[in-house]
Amino acid sequence: MPPAARTARPAHRCTECGYASAKWVGRCPECQAWGSLSEVGTVPAGGLRAVSAGAVTAPARPIAQVELSGARAVPTGIPEFDRVLGGGLVPGAVLLVAGEPGVGKSTLLLEVAHRVAESNGPALVVSGEESAGQVRLRAERIGALHDQLYLAAETELSAVLAHVEQVQPTLLVLDSVQTVRSPAVDGTDGGATQVRAVASALSAVAKSRGMTTILVGHVTKDGAIAGPRTLEHLVDVVISFDGERHSTLRLVRATKNRFGPADEIGCFEIGDAGVVGVPDPSHLFVSRRSAPVPGSCVTVTMEGSRPLLAEVQALVAPSGGGGSPRRAVSGLDAQRVAMVNAVLERRGGVRLAEADVFAASVGGVKITEPAADLALALAIASAARDMPLPAGMIAVGEVGLSGEIRRVGGTGRRLAEAARQGYRVALVPEDAGQAPKGMRLIEVPDLGAALARLT
């Protein structure tokens, strides 16, 4: 058949990751999402056409001659937020901040815009969810009023771009990207097509103007960022804002960062004065009591380059019978807790098969790294035997399936932080290094040697 006689085939694109396919399939081969492919147009059946060389935007230069002035981070004046960003806001960068409703995203970003307006020129906050009066009331409450801080309430992309042309800001905060629509694109408000179009347009404007842009995004019921997965690929930095409603603690993490580390954490407390950074948050994750109690052990976790003391608590109670014993976990990895339970019963002689086991972290912190395995095992064994651990002792180490205690990274910084907080004894794996001043290390090669410390 001649090429002219070939007909065009319908094209389908995944609304989650952007994967394109010539035919519809029930499950996306790229992101494995079900029912996410929708028809978006047609593609020629003849395949790709040859592309000739065109004009370039700027000539290629030796890498040593590329200027760095426009790529250096500018501190915001909020140390905890700058730690997560890798030093501050980079001109032209696009950030996506996501979190549950009411967690404090808008309050923190309003304070960021206020600090930028004070030190680095005009800042523009565009709210699509609240009126300008509501945002003004919040700004008065946290003391974020400034002549260089501009505020607008818009839901049309064209109006947002008009405000950018008028104000010429160094920082744009859009709250939120799901509430803004582009009239040039079909699709429901807040849908995948609209969100992708709005984010793409604002990203192009940010790059061309050297304007830092912060987009606030919604999250789904399971905590994932709402909208298409391509939204996370369009931006330079993805930040998650976590916190529980009944707690004043807020944790800010960077899950993607093109300008710095993607594993740092910032700690904040929310109150009447807004969101305030907590430079030394270890005391938030450790209980203060006069005497040791069974089922409690302190460990040191690493969040990026920051060591944090965290307490692991466990409760072992006789099962009521009539079914499988209960296993409840809060703030810990459920799979690792199940593994530690199995190792304790098989290698440590702790009977848990007929008991309910509850394990949790203190202060709402989420502990996922293996360095907390030893502390978790000691807490469960302490609760099962109703014997408290000695006061002033911490435990750091990974528990293997054969019961051995393995070394973990950053042991020196972990122990130094524990010594600074007043802990004097540490259970560690073999060859853990030199003890900090005022601390005694007890090396335990396996779980049996660690459990012997209970007696």
UniProtKB/TrEMBL annotation:
Domain RecA family profile: 70-219
Entry remark concerning the domains of this protein: The middle region has homology to RecA with ATPase motifs including the RadA KNRFG motif, while the C-terminus is homologous to Lon protease.
Binding site for ATP: 99-106
Keyword match rRNA-binding: no
CDD domains xref list: RadA_SMS_N (cd01121)
Protein name, UniProt field: DNA repair protein RadA
Organism: Trujillonella endophytica
InterPro entries assigned: AAA+_ATPase, DNA_repair_RadA, P-loop_NTPase, RecA_ATP-bd, Ribosomal_Su5_D2-typ_SF, Ribsml_uS5_D2-typ_fold_subgr, Rubredoxin_2
UniProt entry keywords in alphabetical sequence: ATP-binding, DNA damage, DNA repair, DNA-binding, Hydrolase, Metal-binding, Nucleotide-binding, Stress response, Zinc, Zinc-finger
RadA KNRFG motif (motif): residue ranges: 256-260
Function of the molecule: DNA-dependent ATPase involved in processing of recombination intermediates, plays a role in repairing DNA breaks. Stimulates the branch migration of RecA-mediated strand transfer reactions, allowing the 3' invading strand to extend heteroduplex DNA faster. Binds ssDNA in the presence of ADP but not other nucleotides, has ATPase activity that is stimulated by ssDNA and various branched DNA structures, but inhibited by SSB. Does not have RecA's homology-searching function. Plays a role in repairing double-strand DNA breaks, probably involving stabilizing or processing branched DNA or blocked replication forks.
GO cellular component terms given for this protein: cytosol
GO biological process: recombinational repair
Pfam families per UniProt: AAA_25, ChlI, Zn_ribbon_LapB
Molecular-function GO terms, alphabetical: ATP binding; ATP-dependent DNA damage sensor activity; damaged DNA binding; hydrolase activity; zinc ion binding
Membership in a protein family: Belongs to the RecA family. RadA subfamily.
